[in-house]
Amino acid sequence: MSKEKIIPYKIYLEEHEMPDSWYNVRADMKNKPAPLLNPGTLQPLTLEEMSGIFCEELCRQELDDTTPYFPIPEEIKKFYKMYRPSPLVRAYCLEEKLQTPAKIYYKFEGNNTSGSHKLNSAIAQAYYAKNQGLKGVTTETGAGQWGTALSMACAYLGLDCQVYMVKCSYEQKPFRREVMRTYGANVTPSPSDTTEVGRKILKEFPGTTGSLGCAISEAVEAATSQEGYRYVLGSVLTQVLLHQSVIGLESKAAMDKYGIKPDVIIGCAGGGSNLGGLISPFMGEKLRGEADYRIIAVEPASCPSFTRGKYVYDFCDTGKVCPLAKMYTLGSSFIPAANHAGGLRYHGMSSVLSQLYADGYMEAVSVEQTSVFKAAEEFARVEGILPAPESSHAIKVAIDEALKCKETGEEKTILFGLTGTGYFDMVAYERYNNGEMSDHIPSDEELAKGFAGIPRFPGNDI
Ligand SMILES: *Cc1c(COP(=O)(O)O)cnc(C)c1O
């Protein structure tokens, strides 16, 4: 007789069980994600062109869609061991509260000072910059988690770190800024007058409170105009998904220890890095025909790139200085409505996830923010963790799926990514608690304005 193992509240891996390599899901994709294009020539970006902006080793990772495993350098593994493995938690208390037969698991990435999964890629990117002998890196940050993560990684490795922070976040989240400065980063509100593109945007849109796309343009300019600097990005790029595969590899190893197989895997999607990382080993099995999983991306109804965007080549930034990427996009000028509180505000989506979605390997849903905060509250009250608003998009859909199981009596196993904590999002929680939070679903007319800015060239029709 087989004895079923009792599953603990938290499944940890031993250090020696942590992954030694990152997994590159592109290696198993039949339809590879479309390459980045040089916006001038409309030809695939070469390693040479790319390495003016990004670190060389990261460019190699970006361009490699055939090598399945990349060994994790020792120095990065050492750093990972300070805050990883992250726990895989069985949400027994939430299950009980919901009275569902579903088994719910979440992978919690909020156990480090940056408060999110972003540190997994920050340390990798900073490591390759350091290895190349660079002086420092530049980047943008929206809500602040990426900037914080990168500041931590740069401080550890002794690299200079320059962060362009979306102005409204800079003003609304002064403590995020101070965390970054504590780690030695130089933080500039964007748009700023320190770059040409920033000055141009300020002139065109006086009083603008900025956007991610705009901060990216400034950070790229800052990198390319200073000797010994490169630009790094915390999401969207395939190299970032590669580093974030550590989330999925750990989750899978922990589940395998107890013979658990998820039926449904859910993650929030901003630029796609945590979701791409969480699903990668499972998606690999699905692509190779070894197993099947239902995979759901959750995005805000106010920034619905998967569910209402176009799958075309578009600019990655407002200033149009970056390469073109083929992705689900709302147009590089799209900015979510001012009442949108919860991150996940990028106009585009990872080209890897975009291709997988286009090929039917995953689903996407959009949810409204008041329902997201309601799910966050419900989760916080039983599971003890105050979740980030971004992560709460995944919570919302995990709860919905668990409630469906309650109706049908199915004992499905649900895995979702709990990407981080919400301690710096208390202004948003305050609005929710005061009943002042509202929803905004952009009209087709509003979206059309964003689509109008998508570049037109043969083969790129919207
Ligand atoms: C940045 C962030 C996200 C969204 O980014 P992805 O690249 O889509 O993963 C989600 N949750 C938290 C806590 C974040 O900081």
Would you summarize the structure shown here?
With 462 residues, the protein is α/β, with parallel strands linked by helices. It has helices spanning 47-50, 56-63, 74-83, 92-98, 119-131, 145-157, 167-172, 174-182, 196-204, 212-224, 238-257, 273-287, 305-308, 351-358, 369-383, 389-408, 426-433, 444-451; strands spanning 10-11, 21-23, 69-71, 88-90, 103-108, 136-141, 160-166, 186-190, 229-231, 264-268, 294-300, 310-315, 324-329, 363-367, 413-418. α3 runs antiparallel to α5, α6 (145-157) runs parallel beside α8 (174-182) and α9 packs antiparallel against α10 (212-224).
Can you tell me about this structure?
This protein is an alpha/beta fold. It is globular and about 60 Å long. Helix 5 (119-131) packs parallel to helix 6 (145-157) and helix 9 (196-204) packs antiparallel against helix 10. Helices cover 41% and strands 16% of the residues. The mean pLDDT is 95. The longest helix is centred in the middle third of the chain and has 20 residues, at 238-257. The protein has 18 helices and 15 strands. The strands form four sheets. It has a seven-stranded mixed beta sheet, with helices on both faces. The protein binds pyridoxal-5'-phosphate. Pyridoxal-5'-phosphate binds at residues 116, 118, 145, 235, 268-275, 343-344, 388, 390-391, 419-420.
Topology overview:
Layout (H helix, E strand, L loop, with lengths): L9 E2 L9 E3 L23 H4 L5 H8 L5 E3 L2 H10 L4 E3 L1 H7 L4 E6 L10 H13 L4 E6 L3 H13 L2 E7 H6 L1 H9 L3 E5 L5 H9 L7 H13 L4 E3 L6 H20 L6 E5 L4 H15 L6 E7 L4 H4 L1 E6 L8 E6 L21 H8 L4 E5 L1 H15 L5 H20 L4 E6 L7 H8 L10 H8 L11
Parallel strand pairs: 5-15, 6-7, 6-9, 7-8, 10-11, 10-15, 11-14
Antiparallel strand pairs: 1-4, 2-3, 4-5, 12-13
Helix pairs in contact: 3-5, 5-6, 6-8, 9-10, 11-12, 15-16
Bound molecules: pyridoxal-5'-phosphate.
The site of pyridoxal-5'-phosphate (PLP) has 19 residues, from helix 12 and helix 16.
